[in-house]
Amino acid sequence: MTHELQLLWAALGVYVLAGTLAVTAAVLGRRPERSVLALIVLGLALHGLSLGLRWVRVGHGPFLTMFEILASNVWSLLLVFAVAYWRIRVLRPSAAVVMPILFLMMGWLLMTHPGEGHLPPTYDTTWLYIHVGFGKIFLGAVLVAVGLAGVILLRWGGLAPRAFTALPGDVQLEELAYRFLALALVFETLMLVSGAIWAQDAWGRYWAWDPLETWAFVTWLTLVFAIHLRITLKPKPVLGASLVLAVFGLAFLTFFGVPFLSTAPHQGAV
Amino acid sequence: MSRAAVSADSVPLCAASPLRRWVGARALHLLASLRLTLVALLLLVAAVVYTVVMPGRITWVLALPLGMLAFNLGAAVATHPAFRRHTALLAFHLALIALVLLVGAGRLTYLKGQLELSQGEWFDGELTQAEAGPWHPWRLHQVRFVNDGFRIDYAPGVRRGPTANAVRWIDAQGRQGGGSIGDHHPLVLAGYRFYTTFNKGFAPVFVWHDARGGVPVRGTIHLPAWPLHEYRQALDWTPPGSDLRVWTMLQIDEPLLDAQRAFQFRVPERHRLVVRVGEERRELAPGERWTLPQGTLVYERLTTWMGYAVFYDWTMPWLLAAAGVAVASLALHFWKKYAARSWMEAGT
Q1: pLDDT confidence of residue B268
Q2: Taking the CA atoms of chain A, what radius of gyration do you get in angstroms?
Q3: Which residues contact B278 (CB under 8 A, 6 or more apart)?
Q4: In chain B, whose CA is at the least distance from the CA of A229?
Q5: A188: left (phi over 0), alpha (psi -120 to 50) or beta
Q6: CB proximity list for B328: less than 8 A, separation 6 or greater
Q7: Three-state SS for A132?
C-alpha cells in the first residue's frame, strides 16, 4: 500500500506542476504546450501504476470506496483530456481551466481514507467494467467541453485578457464544446443502457429509481435539454457555455455527490 | 331529393375542409414545436426530481411529461423536414418513441415480487409480496421449481461470496430441467425471471398433529435472515388449524460464524430449538415432540430457506433493441453531421 500511495502522491505532484504551468502560461500569454502534455503523461503513468498495484493487491478494480472512485476518475478524466489535448491543438490553452477543476478533486482525494472495500457478488460482472468505462468517457467529454466553455466565460468576464487571445472566436469554441457534449450524450446513453443490463442481472430489475440512477437520468435529460436548446433558440455562446457548466455540475454531483446520500453506489451492494 | 340533400350538405363541408386542414396542420405544427420539446423536457426533469421527494407515485407523475414528449416527438417526426433529410436522426427519435411506448406497455403488464422456499419445497405460484401492472397475465401457476439447497462462502469480515442455488424445474410445456442459479444467473420460466437474493436463513421443519384428528401437517417456519440477523433467530407463528401462539428460537450450540475467518453457510450440527407456548417453555432437539392440549408438535429437523425476487416484463428484449437502435443512430447522426463541416466554420 505504501508504494501505491507514494506513486499517487508523485502523480498528483506532477499534475499540480502541469496545471500550474498551464495557468501561469495562460496568464502570461505563453504556450509551453509540449511541457504540459509531457507532465500530464508522466503523471498518468505514475497514477496508472498506483491504480494497477492497488488493483492487484485488493483483487478488484477501483469501483467501490470514495477514494477509489475519486482516484480512478482523476486518472480517467485526465486521460480523456490528454487525448483531446494531444489531438486538438487549438484547445490546449483550456488546460488552464480544466486543471484547477481537477485540483479540487485531487484535494478531495487526499482527504479521503484509502481503505479497502469488499466487492459484492453483484459487482462481479463484465457489465460493471463496460458501464464504468462508458461513464468515464462521458464525464471526460463533458470536462473537455467545460474547458472550452470556461474559456468563453473568462473572455466574456474580461478575466485574464491576454490568456486566450490565440484561440478561435467564441462561436467556434462553443461549437467545439457542443461536439464534445454530443459525444458525452452518446456515452451517457451507453452508460445508462449498460447499467440497466447490469442491474437486471444483478438485482432483477433494470431500473429502480435508486439515487444514482435517478440523478444520472436527470443529467441525461439536462444534456438533451442543452443540445436541444442550442438547436432551437440558438443562444449566444455565453449562455451555451453556461449550460455546459450546468451539465458538468449535475454530472459531477451525480458521480461524486450521490454516494454521500446512499451508502452504496447502487442499492443491493450487500 | 335525396341526391340534392346530400349535395346541399356537402357544400359547406367542402368549404370547411381547407380551413380544417389548415387548423389541423397548425395544431400539428404547434405540437411538433421544438420549444414544446424544451418545456416537456423541463417538466420531465421536474417530475423526476418530484419522484425523489415523493417516491410512491412514480408512474403517474412521469406519465404526463413522457406522454407530452411522445406526442411532441411523433408530431415533429411527421412534420419536420429535418427528419426526412437525416435518416439517422429519424431512427433515433423513432427509437425514443418506441422506448416510451414499450416502457408504458411494460408498466401495464409487469410483475415484481418476492417469495421464499425452504430446501426441498416446490414453488406453487404464491408470492409473499407482489406488485403488478393491471394487465399482467398471471401465469405464475404454470411455473414449477424446487429449491434443492444453496452454497454461499463468506470471506473474513462476513463478506458474502457468490450464491450457488441448486434448482430443478418443470416448464410450461412439462419439460423437466435442473441447474444452478445465483448472482447474475436467474431461472427463467414462462417469461418470469427468478433471482436469488441476499435474504436466506434457517428453517425448522415441524409436523403438527391436531388433537381433533385429521391428517398431520408438515411445514417449515422461516427464521429471520442469517447472518444479517444473527442474534434475532426467533419467530412467533401459529400451527395450521389452531389458535396457538408459538414462539420459537434457534439456539446454536457451536461456533458457526467467525467474523475474522472465512466460513460457509451451513446448518449447525449442534443446536436446540427453544419453543414457548404461553408460560411453558421447552427445548427441542431434532425428532423430539411436545404434546399440548390442542395437538402435538414434532420438531423434525433444521434446514434452510432462500428468498427469491421474481420479475416479469416481456418488453425487456424490445427495450434493449430500441435502446441499441437509439444509441447507434444517435452516434451515426452526430458523426455524419460533424464530419460534414469543420467546427472552425461555425458562424460563417
Answers
A1: 94
A2: 19
A3: B245
A4: B38
A5: alpha
A6: none
A7: helix
What pLDDT is attached to residue B10?
A: 42
In angstroms, the CA A82 to CA A89 distance is 11
What average pLDDT does the structure give for chain A? Answer: 91
Chain B partners within 8 Å of A211 (Cβ):
52
Q: Model ipTM?
A: 0.90
* CB-nearest partner of A218 from B45, B55, B155: B45
Q: What is the pLDDT of residue B1?
A: 35
> Residue B336: which of B90, B91, B77, B86 has the closest Cα?
B86
Give yes or no for residue A84 having a pLDDT over 90: yes
pLDDT digits (tens, 9 = 90+) for B47-66: 998 888 877 767 778 888 98
In sequence order, what E strands does chain B have? 111-118, 129-132, 144-155, 159-170, 176-181, 187-189, 192-210, 217-220, 234-237, 246-252, 263-264, 271-277, 280-284, 289-292, 295-312
Q: Which amino acid is at B118?
A: S
Give the pLDDT score at A263. Answer: 52
Give the domain ranges of chain B.
13-110+317-345, 112-311
Pick from A41-50, B66-75, B111-120: least confident: B66-75
**Residues of chain B positioned with their CB less than 8 A from the CB of A225:** 38, 41-42, 45
**A126/chain B closest Cα distance in angstroms:** 11
CA distance B341 to B334: 11
DSSP string covering B22-61: HHHHHHHHHHT-HHHHHHHHHHHHHHHHHHHHSGGGHHHH
